[in-house]
Amino acid sequence: MSDKTSINAALGGLLDALSQGGGGLFSAVEHQPIIQSAIDLAKTGKYEEFYFALMYPFEQVVDSIVQKALPESPQAQFLMKNSEFVESHFVTLIKKYEGSACSADKSRAILSHLLVFFVKGKKIEFDFTQEYTYHLPKKIFTTHEEILGFFDGVQRLYYGRPDEYLKALMETMKKGEQSYGT
Question: Per-residue pLDDT averaged across 2-24, rounded?
Answer without folding.
Answer: 63
